[in-house]
TrEMBL record, chain A:
Originating organism: Parnassius mnemosyne
Top-level taxon in the UniProt lineage: Eukaryota
Protein name: Mitochondrial inner membrane protease subunit
Residue ranges of domain Peptidase S26 in the record: 20-95, 101-143
Keywords from the named record: Hydrolase, Membrane, Mitochondrion, Mitochondrion inner membrane, Protease
This protein's record includes keyword Membrane: yes
Phylogenetic placement of the source organism: Eukaryota, Metazoa, Ecdysozoa, Arthropoda, Hexapoda
From TrEMBL, chain B:
Protein's membrane topology: Single-pass membrane protein
Protein name (Swiss-Prot/TrEMBL): Mitochondrial inner membrane protease subunit
Protein keywords: Hydrolase, Membrane, Mitochondrion, Mitochondrion inner membrane, Protease, Transmembrane, Transmembrane helix
GO molecular function: serine-type endopeptidase activity
Pfam families per the UniProt record, alphabetical: Peptidase_S26
Subunit and partners: Heterodimer of 2 subunits, IMMPL1 and IMMPL2.
Enzyme superclass (EC): hydrolase
Residue ranges annotated for the Peptidase S26 domain, each copy included: 9-92
Subcellular location: Mitochondrion inner membrane
């Protein structure tokens, strides 16, 4: 009898673990999550090891605007994420490094640039980025505590 | 069953379902003729394929696999194509702006089987691996068409050089 009781308790426990894991997954995948950024490309807006709160609704609903800071998968390495500012939407005229002439952002793409334009590898290097690679939009900085600030308005 | 327990099971059931669809895979209907004859061989009935998310969890794809990806032109649209070449390969293109293309790092070259009736890399160029959504494993409906989707490439569409 006790064996069944223990078995039932264990099953119940694992059920709860799975339930909460699934809820966590959905929250992080569909609503928002926390991201730690590193690298100099977004200085002085963001510094290394800042923790950012991001939301996933705007990219899903295609409501991105010029000036939003977004987290996207790197076009050359899908396992790596990049954090840049949108400076051009489809149809905008932008200027890259290579080829060094102005070009129009094609449909379904955005132009991403880091704020630290002298030390940032961004769209000027690898061209427009497909919107499908954008994962989330940065809402505010939550760490370090003395620099908590909203990052949605440009 | 009280209203409270119903809303409770919805609250816990929906995330479990979504997580399952996100990590394991789901079934989707194939639209269009771009993958004929492998998918939708007749014009009347549509094939349903099982798309495995698990198979692409770390972006491991092979040449010849059938994959679904978000279209680079329209992020809301999902397209289903066959992988022709991976990073470092050189492909001979059909109607792209350059005759020969070396696939850049982190990209792949995708084409529909129905050459000439498909919107693929020959139009929009190499696609980033990050756009890959799932791998099509098998046709699950209608029952007469039940089969696994093999990784195969016609001899004429093999990449000219294959990176090691």
């Amino acid at each position: 009898m006790t064996i069944f009781k223990v078995l039932g308790k264990t099953c119940g426990f694992f059920g709860y673990v799975i339930q909460y894991a699934c809820i966590t997954h959905c929250t992080f995948e569909y609503i928002g999550d926390f991201v730690m950024c590193s690298g100099p490309s977004m200085e002085p807006t963001l510094e290394s090891n800042n923790i950012l709160l991001t939301e996933h609704l705007t990219p899903r609903l295609q409501r991105l605007r010029r000036g939003d800071i977004v987290i996207a998968k790197s076009p050359s390495n899908p396992k790596q994420n990049i954090c840049k500012r949108i400076t051009g939407l489809p149809g905008d005229k932008v200027k890259g490094h290579f080829p060094k002439r102005s070009q129009v952002v094609p449909r379904g793409h955005v132009w991403l640039e880091g704020d630290n334009s002298t030390n940032s590898s961004d769209s000027r290097l690898y061209g427009p980025v497909p919107q499908g690679l954008i994962r989330s939009r940065v809402v505010c900085r939550v760490w370090p505590l003395n620099k908590i600030s909203s990052l949605t308005e440009y | 069953m009280s209203l409270r327990s119903i809303s409770r099971s919805i609250l816990f059931g929906v995330p479990i379902g979504l997580t399952f669809l996100d990590t394991v895979g789901y079934v989707a209907r194939v639209e269009g003729i771009s993958m004929q004859p492998a998918l939708n061989p007749g014009s009347t009935n549509k094939d349903y394929v099982f798309l495995s998310r698990w198979a692409v969890r770390d972006y491991n794809i092979k040449r010849g696999d059938v994959i679904s990806l978000s279209s680079p032109k329209d992020p809301n649209q999902k397209i289903i194509k066959r992988v022709v070449a991976l990073q470092g390969d050189v492909v001979s293109t059909i109607g792209y702006k350059n005759q020969y293309v070396k696939i850049p790092e982190g990209h792949c070259w995708v084409e529909g089987d129905h050459t000439g009736h498909t919107l693929d890399s020959n139009t929009f160029g190499p696609v980033s691996l990050g756009l890959i959504n799932a791998k099509a494993v098998s046709i699950v409906w209608p029952p007469a068409r039940w089969q696994k989707l093999e990784a195969k490439l016609p001899e004429s569409r093999k990449p000219l050089s294959i990176a090691m």
